[in-house]
Design goal:
Elements: E1 3-6, E2 13-18, E3 23-30, E4 38-42, E5 45-46, E6 57-62, E7 73-78, E8 81-93, E9 101-107, E10 112-117, E11 125-130, E12 133-134, E13 142-146, E14 150-155, E15 164-172, E16 175-186, H1 194-214, H2 216-222
Organism: Haliaeetus albicilla
InterPro entries: Cell_adhesion_signaling, Ig-like_dom, Ig-like_dom_sf, Ig-like_fold, Ig_I-set, Ig_sub, Ig_sub2, Immunoglobulin_dom
GO molecular function: cell adhesion molecule binding
């Protein structure tokens, strides 16, 4: 009948919290007639406990709770029998944090990708705007890509009409973030005819050489 409980949970559980305020976890030995030593682990690493915080009851505090603690597992174990344990997974919730602006210059007829990087919990949804109006996605010209942290808009074969400010708006139940992209489409640069120049140089060189060979007798007579 010996068992442990963490914050009154006798089985593994998930604890929802927000980033910032501290979180306290209390591990308690149940149904024991003797003093039992307790151990705490953060993922695979052992947590250092003071001597007065190890027997029958053990408390740890995560302060402050940060976004990096999301999904981290804390486990309380019985020292003499580590199979007796209870784990808690932190579910740290925070709004998307996305700000700022970016300017992009791209040649006409080339492809461009606008990228928003934004973490959030719960997962956010994204919307794209052009010049503050909902972006109408043209088939075969616009492509959207989305993961839990990356939101991308790709524009193929950009035209002058694509000039403008594109806004990535990332929303979750806890808030929203946004980022502006100022897209400037430049005139297509003329392609320098490298092959033609090389060919012309070869022709000129050969002509000069042939001319020298044809006149070598006269050149030698002069000397």
């Amino acid at each position: 009948g010996l068992e442990l409980s963490v914050n009154n949970h006798a089985a593994d559980f998930s604890l929802s919290t927000s980033a910032g305020p501290p979180v306290s976890l209390s591990c308690l030995v149940q149904n024991s007639s003797q003093a039992e030593e307790l151990l705490w682990y953060r993922e695979g690493g052992k947590v250092d406990l003071k001597d007065g915080n190890k027997v029958n009851v053990s408390n740890i505090c995560i302060s402050p709770v940060t976004k990096s603690d999301n999904g981290v597992t804390f486990t309380c174990k019985l020292a003499r029998d580590k199979s007796v344990q209870v784990s808690v997974i932190l579910d740290v919730q925070f709004p998307p944090q996305l700000t700022g602006e970016e300017s992009l210059q791209i040649e006409e007829n080339k492809d461009v990708t606008l990228t928003c990087n934004a973490k959030s919990n719960p997962q956010a949804q994204t919307a794209w705007y052009k010049n503050k109006n909902t972006l109408i996605l043209q088939q075969n010209r616009y492509q959207l890509y989305q993961t839990s942290e990356v939101f991308q808009l790709s524009i193929k074969t950009v035209q002058k009409s694509d000039n403008g400010t594109y806004t990535c708006v990332v929303k979750s139940a806890l808030g929203e973030g946004r980022k502006d992209f100022h897209l400037i489409v430049e005139d297509k640069k003329p392609v320098f005819p490298t092959e033609a120049v090389i060919a012309a140089a070869v022709v000129v060189t050969l002509t000069v050489l042939f001319g020298i060979v044809a006149r070598k007798d006269k050149i030698f007579k002069v000397w």
